[in-house]
UniProtKB/TrEMBL annotation:
Transmembrane segments: none annotated. Keywords: Oxidoreductase. This is Ring-1,2-phenylacetyl-CoA epoxidase subunit PaaA. It comes from Actinophytocola algeriensis. It comes from the Bacteria. One of its GO terms (cellular component) is cytosol. Gene3D superfamilies: 1.20.1260.10. Its EC number is 1.14.13.149. InterPro entries: Aromatic_CoA_ox/epox, Ferritin-like, Ferritin-like_SF, PaaA, PaaA_PaaC.
Length: 309
């Protein structure tokens, strides 16, 4: 099969499965994107996990524990999807801890108060859903199927975040101030999750042609802004952008310019928590070495017992 035949196949909305022929670039792009996505889910456990031991009630602690555990599960489905493309999970983890593979910029910001747990659910999971629902129709079968399960859980996460914020907004003035402070800190980094502008996005054109991506970064960012404005109003918070207003001619909200210098600084390893996040991941991986060794030894032993029987 030629590259052109392959392009025609995906244009006809045919799913690509692991044993099908695919161009090397398609395989490489998928491994990059899915690995980055998997790393994001795993590193993304850290900011919220910071609050598990200090959750204000048993109910909030149980919810937060379950959510953080879900993110681990998402990371595992996604690493499994990269393995269907021939990638090696241990190698991907090594690349992550050596800073040779990226993860989402959003997880390099600190969680300073408990309202951050709610705002991550509302805005970060909200942005993740906006970006990921179209990936349920991505051309690579194992990735698309992983995304269906992930999106179901992410929408539940978003609702729990919004419910937490609603509860806080019905509380004291201090609680309302905490929510507003948190929204002020997370709004712009959430918009950055969608990646560089279309003009600066090196991968979008090819990924759209291969039906890996179904929408451009700017299209999804706009969708997220339009979706979030009424939600902010219902909550009673202000989004920290003086240029944000409805544009009746476009049928969308106009919004201010993202600080792209900050975006690239954070993506390239120099955000507020980059070093801390990667170091924590590296240490957790090293501390878990004995579990991997024990599991491998157990699997080998079980296989030899089966052989004898
Ligand atoms: N941060 O050419 P493009 C979550 C990189 S999961 C860091 O536009 P592409 C769940 C990009 O990889 C959040 N790097 O790239 C959760 C590329 O790298 P290269 C993660 C970024 O791939 C919630 C370069 O810049 N979601 O939140 C970022 O076509 C709560 C040029 O960019 C996914 O990964 C960024 N923000 O589009 C967990 C979804 N943006 O080639 C815990 C799947 C771009 O130089 C708690 N991924 N880069 O190595 C995607 O949809 C796409 O990969 C994009 C980027 C849209 C992120």
């Amino acid at each position: 099969m030629s590259d052109d035949d392959f392009t025609r196949l995906v244009e006809a909305e045919q799913r690509v499965e692991p044993r099908d022929w695919m161009p090397d670039g398609y395989r490489r792009t998928l491994i990059r994107q899915i690995a980055q996505h998997a790393h994001s889910e795993i590193i993304g456990m850290q900011p919220e996990a910071n609050w598990i031991s200090r959750a204000p009630s048993l109910r909030r602690k149980a919810i937060l524990l379950a959510k953080v555990q879900d993110e681990a599960g998402h990371g595992l489905y996604l690493y499994a999807a990269t393995e269907t493309l021939g990638a090696d999970r241990a190698d991907l983890t090594q690349k992550l801890v050596e800073g040779r593979q990226k993860y989402s910029s959003i997880f390099n910001y600190p969680t300073l108060n408990f309202a951050d747990v709610g705002v991550i659910g509302w805005l970060v999971d909200g942005a993740a859903i906006c970006n990921q629902v179209p990936l349920c129709r991505t051309s690579y079968g194992p990735y698309a199927r992983a995304m269906i399960r992930i999106c179901k859980e992410e929408s539940f996460h978003q609702r729990q975040g919004y419910e937490l914020l609603m509860t806080m907004m019905r509380g004291t003035d201090e609680q309302r101030r905490m929510v507003q402070d948190s929204v002020n800190r997370w709004w712009w980094p959430s918009l950055m999750m969608f990646g560089p502008s279309d003009a600066e996005s090196s991968n979008t054109a090819q990924s759209m042609a291969w039906r890996i991506k179904r929408h451009t970064n700017d299209e999804l960012r706009q969708k997220f802004v339009d979706m979030s404005v009424p939600q902010a109003e219902a909550l009673g918070v202000t989004l920290p952008d003086p240029s944000l207003r409805w544009n009746p001619e476009r049928g969308h909200h106009d919004f201010g310019e993202i600080d792209w210098d900050e975006f690239w600084r954070v993506v390239n390893g120099d955000g507020p928590c980059n070093r801390q996040r990667v170091e924590h991941r590296r240490k957790a991986h090293e501390d878990g070495a004995w579990v991997r060794e024990a599991a491998t030894a157990y699997a080998a032993k079980s296989a030899s017992v089966e052989e004898v029987a």
